[in-house]
Amino acid sequence: MKIKSFEIFDYESAVTFWKSIEGVTLNESDTKGSISSFLFRNPGLSFVAKDNNEIVGTILCGHNGRAAQIYHLAVSNSHRGQGLGKELVDLSLSKLVEANIPRCNIFVYSNNCVGNKFWLKNGWDDPTTWKVLQKQLDV
């Protein structure tokens, strides 16, 4: 297995992979153009794991200069329980530390039991003092 930087030429394979993973939801922010812009603005923070040239893990990570966000951490069922998810997270977090970013947030759907269990097991907090509000923009 090999972990490498997520490049835009990984996009089509990543979308196919994400669609196969329970708990990963794609939306208007996941177009090829949007992901390309995200990767361009955040070089070296997002990764794919490949086994026999097939994607078995992904993480998208970016920051705004003061805080970071992780999206689409996903590991194939065949590779779960082997530390790959933690390795991808640790790799992105180490790059954030190098960039002097002091905090990272994740967005996990409330009903994503597998995802929530993973994050809580790995030391992430579930704050009850704030919530996310969102507005869709006509672009």
UniProtKB/TrEMBL annotation:
Residues 1-138 form the N-acetyltransferase domain. The lineage of its organism: Bacteria, Pseudomonadati, Pseudomonadota, Gammaproteobacteria, Thiotrichales. This is GNAT family N-acetyltransferase. Gene3D superfamilies: 3.40.630.30. The keyword Transferase applies. It comes from the Bacteria. Pfam families: Acetyltransf_1 (PF00583). Keywords: Transferase. InterPro entries: Acyl_CoA_acyltransferase (IPR016181), GNAT_dom (IPR000182). The keyword Cytoplasm does not apply. It comes from Leucothrix arctica. SUPFAM superfamilies: Acyl-CoA N-acyltransferases (Nat) (SSF55729). One of its GO terms (molecular function) is acyltransferase activity, transferring groups other than amino-acyl groups.
